[in-house]
Amino acid sequence: MSKTNSGLTELLRLKGNGDAMGATFSIVLYGNDRAKMEAALDAAFDEAGRLDGMLSNYRAESEWSEVNRRAAEEPVKVSVELFQLLSACAAYSRESEGAFDITVGPLMKLWGFYKGSGRLPNREDVAAALPKVGYRHVRLDAASRTVWFDRSGVELDPGGIGKGYAVDRMVDVLRRQGFQIALVAASDSSIYGMGAPPTEPKGWRVGIKEPRNPRRTVDEVFLKDMSISTSGSYQKYFLAEGRRYAHIMDPRTGYPAQGSVSVSVIAPRAIDSEAWASPYFVNGRQWAARRKPTEFRVFFCEDGTEQPCAWLP
User: Of 110, 148, 176, 221, which residue is 20 to 30 A from 41 by alpha carbon distance?
Assistant: First the structure.
């Protein structure tokens, strides 16, 4: 972890970063006691590391990987925390009509998005993978706190929820340490603004990238005790047969979603903004406009529309 600090309007500013879950997590923290600030940053990054050890599907020893290995053979008892997270994932799946689904693991591997940049599979392989995908194959027993897959080949992928969950937990660590002003980010995908920095009472200024030119911004928001997460086809994709295939999968069809270019969701919790960005992307603007909670704000960029980038009403 690296740190820099400077004085500003009688508050110290401390910045840190560290890697976890295949992303770079960063924190900008304001306070008046450097030693306490350093300890709080260390604790927050330790929390990200702990969650990486629990949720990573790249680590064979993680609790998540153990579920993937064993749950098709027998019910696997998991920690309270993981059971609650998996239960939340099941709820997101039901509410999104299956557009959010952590069982996309077989599809992500088939399409080359697991530890790779992507490849175009044949239709037969997609058809063969689809029976292994579907959140209803994950059976959760609250009484025994166990997870069971009702068929072999099911594989969970934490990519649609892990970073947002980690951001929320890191924010909780900072709050418990007594801090009120911070920006916590997991790369550019999930960001939480706690309080407001001394120079901007409206909150933390965050730019929404222009999907076709990510060096530019198409709009900006101010986060004050709010989060923003973005799903975009420009983040990880490949070109094949004249089409762009992004890593945002429609688990019901077995193919990457088409139509949307990027979706940004503002919500009180990062787990919610991250979890909903992908299904809004998959289901489209009209579906999202009907279904989004009143406390959410959603920014859509689509191809082939008169107003390609706009906030939902």
Answer: 221
Tokens encoding 113? 């998005």
* Amino acid 2: pLDDT: 44
As a dihedral over the C-alpha atoms of residue 99, residue 101, residue 106, residue 110, rounded to 10 degrees, the angle is: 30
Residues in the chain: 313
Q: Domain spans of the chain?
A: 1-57+159-195, 63-156, 200-313
User: Does the fold of domain 200-313 match that of domain 1-57+159-195?
Assistant: yes
Cα 99 from Cα 160, distance rounded (Å):
11
Fold of 200-313: T-fold (3.10.520)
Give pLDDT tens digits for 190-230.
999 999 999 999 999 999 998 878 789 999 999 999 999 99
Confidence (pLDDT) at 190:
96
CATH number of 1-57+159-195: 3.10.520.10
The DSSP output letter for 308 is S
Residue 7 pLDDT: 43
pLDDT band at 165 (very low <50, low <70, confident <90, very high): very high
| Entry pTM | 0.92
Top-level class of domain 63-156: mainly alpha
Q: For residue 151, what is the DSSP state?
A: S
Are 94 and 75 a contacting pair, CB within 8 Å?
no
